[in-house]
Amino acid sequence: MGLHPLPDVELYWSTDPFYHNSVISAVMTCRRFKKITENLHLSDRARELQRTQVGYDRLGKIRQIMDILNKSFKDNCIESQTQSIDESMVKFKGRSSMKQYMPKKPIKRGYKVWARCDSETGYLHQFNVYSGRCETNEDGDGGLGFKVIMELCRTVQVDTLIAFDNFFTSLPLMEMLHQRKIYAVVCKVTLCATPCFDNFHK
What is the pTM of this model? Predict the structure, then answer.
């Protein structure tokens, strides 16, 4: 399905030969596929905290798999000394309190994901999903940009150069990165930050 995307999942089992995919439909029926996806969970529902309980995590249902992925990304790469942090959008048009609207982005509605990537290879080292203003407490302790950068730089090696745009930038952030011996440069487009790195080294 990832290699052959269709606008509606039921079309893989369609009687119309234009949409029908015999490889997928031969594995299981459409009804069975829907039942599996409806009941597939990535966390232990018995241990999930309720919304009214202290410590409730909006991302609790996928937190464990996110931690596993981030650990796997870290364990299976050799980090370069030039990296970039920026936001990305995952398209989603359903109902969710975490859905964001970004009118200037190619994907205007969906989940906002913070990502730290390698500037040389594009490899994703670490990511985190933005769960909303109330949960992140953006107004305190340096603001949202400070929290995002420091969270994504927890495992960054010393003498690494991190590029990000002015949305994240603040004096407390720059001072904290300097204390940790992490270089920082502000770029207008961090995903295309290679020229900034070249100028830095020159």
Answer: 0.74
